[in-house]
């Protein structure tokens, strides 16, 4: 599994504990438990101004585990993130050049409580903001948005606002 995904999950779990959620979950994401090949494939979809969906599972990104999550990213520096299949537990955004340091993230610990769609920088009811370095993204920079469910499925998309 990609290092940035694991680091993002660890940071999300730590942030949830810091804000006093009290409960934690265990398990792997995307079905990778160590020693397995990269479930991401080649990477997500890219865009330079219009909405784009990450490729379906098995076609270079979009998810892992028993099934993937396809993400659609809107335009602008506060894009809307949409995904298929119902709510997710966590969403993180980071520079592709600096995957260990998310610039924005939200979580609903122990449950899939974040409904699609979400606008960047806006915390939905019931969610906790875990990272808030960039409430507005930088135009022309490349980012990756990732979403995670409690059933260990996930998805991501690479985009440039």
Essential attributes:
single chain; 161 residues; mainly beta; five-stranded antiparallel β-sheet; four-stranded antiparallel β-sheet; 1 helix; 10% helix; globular; disordered N terminus
Briefly say what this structure is:
By secondary structure, this protein is mostly beta strands.
Architecture overview:
- This protein is mainly β and 161 residues long.
- The protein has one domain.
- Helix content is 10%, strand content 26%.
- The strands form three sheets. The protein has a five-stranded antiparallel sheet with strand order 9-7-6-10-11, with helices on one face.
- The N terminus is likely disordered.
Topology readout:
Layout: H1 3-18, E1 52-53, E2 63-64, E3 67-68, E4 71-73, E5 80-83, E6 90-95, E7 104-107, E8 118-119, E9 128-132, E10 143-148, E11 154-159
Antiparallel strand pairs: 1-4, 2-3, 4-5, 5-8, 6-7, 6-10, 7-9, 10-11
Instruction: Provide the succession of SSEs.
Output: HEEEEEEEEEEE
- Quaternary structure: single chain
N→C terminal distance? 26 Å
- Would you identify the regions where 5 or more consecutive residues have pLDDT less than 50? 1-67
- Report the mean per-residue pLDDT as an integer: 71
In percent, how much strand structure appears in the residues? 25-35%
Count of domains: 1
């Amino acid at each position: 599994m990609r290092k940035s995904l694991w680091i993002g999950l660890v940071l999300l779990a730590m942030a949830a504990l810091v804000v006093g959620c009290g409960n934690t979950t265990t398990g792997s994401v995307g079905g990778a438990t160590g020693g397995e090949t990269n479930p991401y494939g080649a990477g997500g979809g890219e865009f330079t101004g219009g909405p784009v969906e990450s490729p379906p599972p098995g076609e270079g990104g979009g998810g892992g585990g028993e099934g993937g999550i396809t993400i659609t990213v809107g335009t602008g520096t506060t894009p809307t993130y949409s995904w298929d299949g119902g709510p997710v537990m966590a969403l993180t955004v980071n520079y592709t050049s600096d995957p260990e340091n998310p610039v924005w993230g939200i979580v609903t610990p122990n449950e899939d409580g974040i409904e699609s769609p979400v606008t960047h920088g806006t915390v939905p009811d019931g969610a906790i903001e875990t990272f808030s370095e960039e409430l507005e993204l930088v135009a022309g920079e490349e980012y990756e948005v990732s979403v995670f469910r409690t059933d260990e499925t996930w998805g991501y998309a690479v985009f440039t606002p």
